[in-house]
From TrEMBL:
Entry's EC annotation: 1.1.1.2
Organism ancestry: Bacteria, Bacillati, Actinomycetota, Actinomycetes, Micrococcales
Gene3D superfamilies found in the cross-reference section: Medium-chain alcohol dehydrogenases, catalytic domain, NAD(P)-binding Rossmann-like Domain
The protein's name in its UniProt record: alcohol dehydrogenase (NADP(+))
Organism: Glutamicibacter uratoxydans
Residue span(s) of domain Enoyl reductase (ER): 13-341
Length: 347
């Protein structure tokens, strides 16, 4: 057993504060990770505040974890002490269902095990990455390639894979016109990755306030969605639209921006149902789809791709005592583009 320093929400809606937690003893297939950096994802805020269902408290959030291997179990073959590693949104799955066998562990029929707030095999509740240490079975540990600093790599474990997976699946690449809706934590990675894949990238944002950033990140075009002319001008022009916005949008007006056979993929998760006008789909053989993170092999592929193209997240590194303030700033969209906790400040 390892004692770890962490930051936890003591109850729904209460500010996070320091806590000591126990990490399980390193089992035969386990890796003990000395966490160096942990990204702050919007999901962390929804979850600890109880907005996505009841939680068990105290709860340590964090599923964008980057660190160094400190100890390995005697059956571990993939990692050794000193390796640079990451952990994303899940820490286990059944491993035997058809989805797991296909590498889609995130959709495991028996339920993937979330990195925090989930009931583990031994009945304990998983605790996330706002912590000095974490123990994870080796199959759910990712390798962070040399050439990617750990701080800018951490957000790739959620924001990176969430956008990489649909961009790859729906064929973003040379000759393809891709629109990214929303330029936040997810959107800024979507722009970088889609541009690196060779697509022609357009940002669709409420206003033009982040236009300079969007172009710097790799977009070729930038339009304000509050301007109705945008929707007339861009009608039937995109092969793929990735929607990173978690607030309800008029989906049918975005579907009209797709070419024949185009697809709009939601990675943002609004609480409310999104009404879709079937005519907007029928009148262009269009698809409206969703996507949730990615499998483990695909997450490794994403990290390798990002290292090869020198793509880290744009981050603001904070100390642990700034977490609550950072939450307020995330909710106010006042971050460019991801907060990352330096876990050395937990000690
Ligand atoms: Zn996340
Ligand atoms: Zn499974």
């Amino acid at each position: 057993m390892t004692l770890a320093k962490a930051y936890a929400a003591p109850a729904a809606g209460e500010a996070l504060r320091p806590i000591d937690i126990e990490r399980r003893s390193v089992g035969a297939h386990d890796v003990l990770i000395d966490v160096k950096f942990a990204g702050i994802c919007h999901s962390d805020i929804h979850t600890v505040r109880g907005e996505w269902g009841e939680q068990s408290y105290p709860l340590v959030p964090g599923h964008e974890i980057a660190g160094i291997v400190a100890e390995v179990g005697n059956a571990v073959t993939k990692y050794k002490v000193g390796d640079r590693v990451g952990v994303g949104c899940m820490v286990n799955s059944c491993g035997t269902c058809d989805y797991c066998e296909a590498g889609d562990e995130q959709y495991c029929r028996n339920g993937m095990l979330g990195t925090y707030g989930a009931v583990d095999r031994d009945g304990s509740i998983t605790q996330g990455g706002y912590s000095t240490h974490v123990v994870v079975t080796e199959d759910f540990v990712l390798s962070i390639p040399e050439g990617l600093d750990l701080d800018v790599a951490a957000p790739l474990l959620c924001a990176g894979i969430t956008t990489f997976s649909p961009l790859q699946r729906w064929g973003a690449g040379p000759g393809k016109k891709v629109a990214i809706v929303g330029l936040g934590g997810l959107g800024h990675m979507a722009v970088k990755i889609a541009a690196a894949m060779g697509a022609e990238v357009t940002v669709l944002s409420q206003s033009l306030s982040k236009q300079a950033d969007g172009l710097r990140l790799g977009a070729q075009h930038y339009y304000a969605t509050k301007d109705p002319e945008t929707f007339e001008k861009l009608a039937s022009s995109f092969d793929l639209i990735i929607n990173t916005v978690s607030a309800p949008l008029n989906i049918s007006s975005y579907l009209d921006l797709l070419r024949v056979d185009g697809a709009m993929v939601n990675v943002g998760a609004p609480a409310e149902p999104l009404p879709v006008n079937a005519m907007a789909l029928i009148g262009g053989r269009r698809s409206f789809a969703g996507s949730m993170i990615g499998g483990i092999a695909e997450t490794q592929q994403m990290l390798d791709f990002c290292a090869q193209h020198h793509l880290g997240a744009d981050i603001e590194v904070i100390s642990a005592d700034q977490i609550n303030e950072a939450y307020d700033r995330v909710l106010a969209s006042d971050v460019r583009y991801r907060f990352v906790i330096d876990t050395a400040t937990l000690n």
